[in-house]
Amino acid sequence: MSQFLDKLAVTIRNYGCHQIECGVQVIQVFESWAHQASPAKFQRFANSAAQKAIKIMKEKHPDVPVIYFVNGGSSYLELQRDMGADMIALDWSVDMAEARKILGPDVPVSGNVDPTVLFGTEEQVRSAVRECIDKAGGPGNRHLLNLGHGVMQGTPEESVGWLVDECKRYRGKEEA
Predict the structure, then answer these.
(1) β-sheet bridge partners, residue 70
(2) What would the DSSP string read from start to end of the chain?
(3) What is the value of pTM for the model shown?
């Protein structure tokens, strides 16, 4: 199994490096099936292979940011802290404030607005943006706001606009 995972890590590294050499400005490594593994198996298999791939990409392209995303990875946050990635992406199943406590204030994070909120009202979307930013520590606090896993099929485009507009507009709790 370790030989297979080493080959997989090298393949991911090669693909990531190829993308960088073709002009991408950031790489996100997705661990799509981690939620199917126990914490011990996640650490032994998924985490170690991804960590190796990230390390090799960073050695070859140190100035290109690498984001690590573990789908359903909220129960593994403490295992993601030292991945070597520049940022940890969070899905919507973890409270942003709790993730901040586990990862610490120095680990850059992205996420984690629940994508279903985009089916709500304008005020619900704008409120979710403000809440996520505040729980991450406020504007400019090593946080890249985005959805916790992407835009769902059928999402009204207008709602995506509200999310982007509020993200640009919001300056923190003190403005209220």
Answers:
(1) 31
(2) -HHHHHHHHHHHHHHHHHHHHTT-S-EEEEETTGGGS-HHHIIIIIIHHHHHHHHHHHHH-TTS-EEEEETTGGGGHHHHTTSS-SEEE--TTS-HHHHHHHH-TTS-EEEEE-GGGGGS-HHHHHHHHHHHHHHTTSTTSSEEEEESS-PPTT--HHHHHHHHHHHHH---GGG-
(3) 0.89
Q: What is the chain's pLDDT, residue by residue, as a tens digit (176 residues)?
A: 889 988 988 899 899 999 999 999 999 998 888 888 888 888 888 888 899 999 999 999 999 999 999 988 888 899 898 889 999 999 999 999 999 999 998 999 998 999 999 999 999 999 999 999 999 999 988 999 999 888 999 999 999 999 999 999 999 887 54
CA distance 3 to 6: 5
